[in-house]
Structures are given as C-alpha cells and as structure tokens.
Design a protein that fits this description.
single chain; about 270 residues; mainly alpha; about 65% helix
C-alpha cells in the first residue's frame, strides 16, 4: 500500500506540474477525484497513508508473565502455553509460539514486554493537554516521544504558543505565532496559517474580544441531542417545551427537588 501511495502521489504532482486539472488526472489515473485531491494537497506521500492503531491482542495481558518465566529459564513453549491457559488465556498454543518467536531477542536479553501501542487520538490528546494536567507517566511518555521525533517537538512548542495567544489575548502574539508556524515547515500547519490569513480581522477579534460563539454552539448541540432522542416520537408542543427547558437549565444552577430536577417554578413559568 505504501508503494502504491508513493507512486500515485508522485504521478499526481507530476501531472499537476504539467498543468492538468484534478478531474482530468482522476480520469487519467482511474482514481476517485477526492483521492486525487488528497494527493494534490499533501506535501509528502506519508500524509496520505492511513494509520490504523495496533491492537494488543488476546495475549496482551499475559506478556509480562511470559517474559518473566522465560527469564527464569522456562523455554518450553507448550508448558508456557499451559500456564497462561490456566490463568484465563483463551488462545491456542500456536499464538503463544508466534509471540515468543517474534520477540526472541527481547526475551533472551531479559527485556520487559513492549509498552501497549497508543492510538493517534490518545497521543494528540496528550500533546494538546496542558503539561501541568498530565500524570507522571503521561509526562514521561510525552518527553520520550518529543526526544525521538523532532517534528512533534516543534509541533508541541507551537501548541503551547497558540495556547498562550488566547491566555494573554494579544493580536500581536497571533501574528508572531502565524509566522512561526509558517516557518516550521509542517505542511498542515502551513495550510492552517493560510486559512487564517483569509480573514485575519476575524481572527484578531476572536483573540482579543471577550465574546465568542460558545453559547450558540451549545444551543446547536442541545438541538441535535433532542433530535436524536425525540425525532419522530413527539409533537411540536412537546419538542418546544423540551428545547426551552434545556436552554433554561444551561443558564441556571442545577437544582433537584423532591419531584425531580424539572419541578421548578421558573421552568413551569416558561412552559
């Protein structure tokens, strides 16, 4: 798949250089136009390759015991398979054999089992969370990750600088951040800065003004929730009451009465 992606990315950019349109490239390469558009927007072919999280598998909870027993001198795979089966392993002996043979170097060196793979979503959450809010293990993981990947180290620094822009609410910091992000060489950040330049006045207003669209976004979220719960199951009068009650509950402290959280005079007046 990597080889096909690399070949398609090279071909798309070569045809773009010749002046061919995306629709014509899609017909020429017999590819979907959206696929061609993703290749055209990507600076490198690696940006187009999908990344799936690695699964631990059914043997994951028993890897520690296998490594410990191997270090103690037990190298009989059948015996190790019987041990983990007695402790709840539901796989077959061949699964244990495959794991031990593929990790033979680590077992012979006495190394611990590999750490569980983290998904891209989890890594993104750790990078975008304030460092003081991370646990000790999470801070160690982020530190080692940034040491091994210079691009992520640059990206992590820009995340902190972007957070500082909204903490201090200064438009000059946003302009400085935009320049730094453009000079970082990270393709996705460069595209993000280009989109910011399209409406720079609105960006400066979002940074400096105290008002925001959070309330409107919250109402939209509430409406979508009510739609999922009650669409096709209730009439307009009941839906109207539900919308008003939910909107009012967001503006007042939640109080519970003997008759339930909705038995409040203010709510009754609204209805």
């Amino acid at each position: 798949m990597a080889e096909r992606t690399r070949r398609n990315h090279t071909t798309v950019h070569a045809l773009l250089t010749e002046g061919m349109a995306l629709r014509a490239i899609a017909r020429h390469m017999d590819l979907d136009r959206n696929v061609v558009r993703r290749h055209a927007r990507a600076a490198t072919w690696q940006e187009v390759v999908p990344v799936w999280p690695r699964r631990v598998g059914i043997i994951g909870p028993y890897r520690g015991r296998l490594h410990r027993r191997w270090a103690e001198g037990e190298h009989n795979i059948a015996a190790l398979a019987r041990e983990v089966t007695a402790r709840g392993f539901h796989g077959c002996e061949e699964t244990v054999r495959l794991y031990l043979t593929s990790h033979r170097e680590a077992l012979d060196a006495g190394l611990p089992p590999p750490a569980p793979a983290r998904s891209a979503f989890e890594v993104t959450r750790l990078l975008t969370t304030r460092p003081e809010r991370l646990g000790e293990d999470q801070q160690v993981f982020v530190k080692h990750l940034l040491e091994r990947c210079p691009e992520l180290r640059v990206f992590h620094g820009l995340i902190g600088a972007f957070r500082e822009v909204f903490d201090k609410k200064r438009a000059a910091l946003m302009d400085r951040w935009t320049t730094s992000a453009r000079q970082s060489g990270l393709a996705r950040l460069v595209r993000f800065t280009v989109s910011l330049q399209d409406d720079l006045d609105a960006v400066h207003a979002a940074v400096t003004l105290p008002c925001n669209s959070g309330v409107a976004e919250g109402r939209i979220t509430d409406l979508k929730m009510i739609k999922r719960q009650m669409a096709g199951r209730a009439g307009i009068p009941l839906l109207r009451k539900r919308v008003i009650l939910v909107a009012h509950s967001r503006r007042t402290p939640h109080r519970t009465t003997p008759d339930g959280p909705w038995a409040i005079n203010a709510h009754e007046n609204l209805v």
